[in-house]
Amino acid sequence: MKIAVIGLGFVGLSLTSVLASKGNNVIGIDVDVEKCKKIRSGIAPFFEPNLEKLLRIGLKKQLTITDNFSLVKDCDMIFVAVGTPQKSNGAIELSLIKKAVASIGRVLAKSKNNPIVLIKSTVIPGTMQNVILPILERRSGKKAGREFGLISNPEFLQESSAIRDTEFPHVIVLGGYQTKFMKKAKSFFSRLHPNVSITITNHQTAEMIKYANNSFLATKISFINQLSNICQNIPGANIDDIAKTIGLDPRIGVLFLNAGPGYGGSCLPKDMKALIGFANKIGINPTLLNAVEKTNQKQIQNIVSIMENTLGALAAKRITVLGTAFKPNTDDVRDSIAIELIKKLLKKKAKITVHDPKAIRNTRNIFGGKICYDESITRALNNSHCAIIMTQWKQFGELNNKSIKCMKRKLIIDCRRILANKKLDAEYYALGIGK
Ligand code: UGA
What we know:
The protein is of the alpha/beta class. Helices cover about 40% and strands about 15% of the residues. It has helices at about 10-20, 35-40, 50-60, 95-110, 125-140, 160-165, 180-190, 205-230, 240-245, 270-280, 285-310, 335-345, 360-365, 375-380, 400-405; strands at about 1-5, 25-30, 65, 75-80, 115-120, 150, 170-175, 195-200, 320, 350-355, 370-375, 385-390, 410-415, 425-430. The protein has a 6-stranded parallel β-sheet, with helices on both faces. The protein has a 6-stranded parallel β-sheet with strand order 11-10-9-12-13-14. Strands 7-8 form a two-stranded parallel sheet. Helix 1 (about 10-20) packs across helix 3 and helix 8 (about 205-230) packs parallel to helix 11 (about 285-310). The N and C termini lie far apart (about 60 Å). The model has no long low-confidence stretch (mean pLDDT about 95). Bound molecules: uridine-5'-diphosphate-glucuronic acid. Uridine-5'-diphosphate-glucuronic acid (UGA) binds near residues 258 and 260. Uridine-5'-diphosphate-glucuronic acid binds near residues 122, 264, 265 and 268.
């Protein structure tokens, strides 16, 4: 079996590397020639634990990395994992996926192969039926379900555990018509993930499952953040003890109840906006989803208020931002709340120094010379009026009296409560812990 993966971002490159490391004949395709060159030499274009290790194993086996689309012509399965970024109106941008499927269609027109095209990219319900299928049929001159298969196969991997999630997914979703292609796809996934449950459904339901998943996760986060804000005003109340305890109720579950500065990253904020926009468009007022989003947007103001209440005017205050990655174990700063916070603080004329174990380079790409960067946490704290912990890097839990000694004012605002159980000689404010 020959497999193509189109789009070598987090989803595509993780899938490519996992499949190739198991010895499958895989072709990873991306339009970015420089990116392909880098990947071919065994270097991942972004940090993701264990990714390079599997990529290099794959490259020693049967993995090909190329920008040449025509190589999909002998493939039995073609995964499409290109991005669907957000447009300024909140809707998703389909141009990359349209281009990718048009290229597949053109190759199929000249091929005798009957492959299965699986769409991993996140798309609004109806996109498969109304956009992707017509492009593929028109460009290939072939009929979906008869001469090629077309399956929605949403992805649930998280950045920072992308490899583990790709190897051990909690579910496989296959959306499409009940044809021989669906049977073949089911047997492929059953062999790849023997004990994983497979949901077989239609295109629109599969597309909606992805949005249901991410919007529920966002709802859990906004819920706990709202409770965290209430706790902050109850002297002694601790949101972590509350989250841990309610999480033991199997109807609630403990995951995604970590209060913090709000959800960021390239997925939850974008998917929430796209789902809200889609609901409005079809005449449903998504009141709960709107509240989830609003709660998330307001969380940053809560942080700025704590800063202003403790520091007074922020102009000329030296603030050390600890963590700019949108979560630990990644160098990704896309839609990171820390980045948004820095923008707000710069507007208030604060002087910013950042430290992040992995994301300094990507942060520098955004702010250039407007802020300072330091690879050493102690140096980053030197002469600072306030340290704010934004990302839950475990290294930040190792801060001690020695490392904060050099601060001008020993004020710590901990959005992740990493230091809550430490006795530090400092003024300490934590999101979700009542003063
Ligand atoms: C998210 C989903 O978790 C994945 O299942 C999905 O496949 C992916 O989007 C996607 O659509 O591609 P990801 O963006 O990697 O994954 O990040 P998450 O781990 O979900 O974290 C998102 C944000 O929520 C981060 O800013 C994180 O700090 C925040 N978060 C998460 C909390 O504030 N509290 C929590 O308890 C969990």
